[in-house]
TrEMBL record:
Keywords assigned: Dioxygenase, Iron, Metal-binding, Oxidoreductase
Domain Fe2OG dioxygenase: 179-279
UniProt-recorded Gene Ontology molecular function terms: dioxygenase activity
InterPro entries: DIOX_N (IPR026992), IPNS-like_FE2OG_OXY (IPR044861), IPNS-like_sf (IPR027443), Oxoglu/Fe-dep_dioxygenase_dom (IPR005123)
Protein name in the entry: Isopenicillin N synthase family dioxygenase
PANTHER family: FI07970P-RELATED, OXIDOREDUCTASE, 2OG-FE II OXYGENASE FAMILY PROTEIN
Organism: Halodurantibacterium flavum
Family designation: Belongs to the iron/ascorbate-dependent oxidoreductase family.
Length: 324
């Protein structure tokens, strides 16, 4: 039943590879469907992203946050939502699961998809240059390689999700012609055990899917229907995947976008690198009629993904509130 879980399942994605048998693919699709209809979360094994690349990205994350503050502040987040976000500069006021009053206890570097200077959409909202530190040139190289590998994984997963919804494997392809990609390199310092203070306050993600690599510190928790917070500790060799709000709406509520939070009450710094795989800014998101059962109505109004996303970013990030 939706929301009734006390653990997060491990799903082996090997069955989604091109060379996999039809039986293996059907088994993987069924496992994804079950996980995302129940908890909206899954640990992904057999994902095919090289572990050495994942580890290099983790090392670059730590190296960036070890830079002097003036170097990081020189990359302060720009109007295209790329760059450094200092500690306590985002408050999740759009959270539908909690009244959030305190900023998140974290700092991060936000990297998005690269935009060619001659792209017809260059300069439009969220379509501008990334910012990387000159003193750490390997960060750019590693981040772009990591994002390319994660994008390929996102494409594979999207095919499996389409099949899980009873749609053709390539149904989502047209909506991801120029996907909206976010790689957020996060650092959570040790936080005091203070009421309503979080590394990341209870929330659901906005987009399609999130693919998270966390370190071995822990702190991620997922809320079930009974209101219990279930720990999602790291499992070596896996990503944590979760459904975002737009996929939950797209699936007409079949897949569940589940509240989660981060509390770093250890005496250690925590680093994580969530990757968000989202539709093109100009993609029209509407529930496919061929997915609906007889008499079932679409719960969401059609929306351009870019409009939907910008509304949320504008409310949750200090730098965007001040600019508006």
């Amino acid at each position: 039943m939706k929301g009734e879980f006390d653990n997060i399942p491990v799903v082996d994605l090997s069955g989604l590879k091109e060379e996999a048998s039809a039986e293996a693919r059907a088994e993987t699709v069924a496992a994804l469907k079950s996980a995302l209809e129940t908890s909206g979360f899954a640990y992904l094994a057999g994902h095919g992203v090289p572990e050495d690349l994942v580890e290099r990205m983790r090392q670059m994350n730590m190296a960036f946050h070890a830079l002097p503050m003036d170097e990081k502040m020189a990359l302060k987040i720009n109007g295209f939502h790329r760059g450094y976000m200092p500690m306590s500069s985002s408050t999740i006021v759009t959270s539908s699961v909690a009244k959030v009053t305190k900023p998140n206890r974290s700092e991060s570097l936000m990297i998005m998809h690269e935009v060619p200077e001659d792209a017809p959409y260059a300069g439009e909202p969220l379509q501008g240059p990334n910012q990387f530190p000159e003193s750490l040139p390997e960060l750019r190289e590693t981040a772009l390689a990591y994002m390319a590998a994660m994008t390929a994984l996102g494409q594979r997963i999207a095919g499996g999700l389409a099949e899980a919804l009873g749609l053709p494997r390539g149904w989502f392809d047209d909506h991801f012609q120029d996907p909206t990609l976010f790689l957020r390199l996060l650092h959570y310092p040790e936080q005091p055990d203070e009421e309503e203070l979080f590394g990341s306050a209870p929330h659901t993600d906005y987009g399609f899917i999130t693919l998270l690599k966390q370190d071995n510190v822990g702190g991620l928790e997922v809320r079930n229907k009974a209101g219990d917070w279930i720990a999602a500790p790291p499992i070596e060799g896996t990503f944590v995947m979760n459904v975002g709000d737009i996929l939950a709406k797209w699936s007409n509520g079949r897949f569940v976008s589940t509240p989660h939070r981060v509390r770093n009450l250890t005496r250690r710094d925590r680093y994580s690198q969530p990757f968000f795989y989202d539709p093109s800014m100009r993609a029209l998101v509407e529930c496919p009629p061929e997915m609906l059962a007889k008499g079932e109505k679409a719960e969401m109004e059609p929306v351009l993904y870019g409009d939907y996303l910008l509304e949320r970013l504008n409310k949750n990030y200090d730098y965007r509130k001040k600019a508006s």
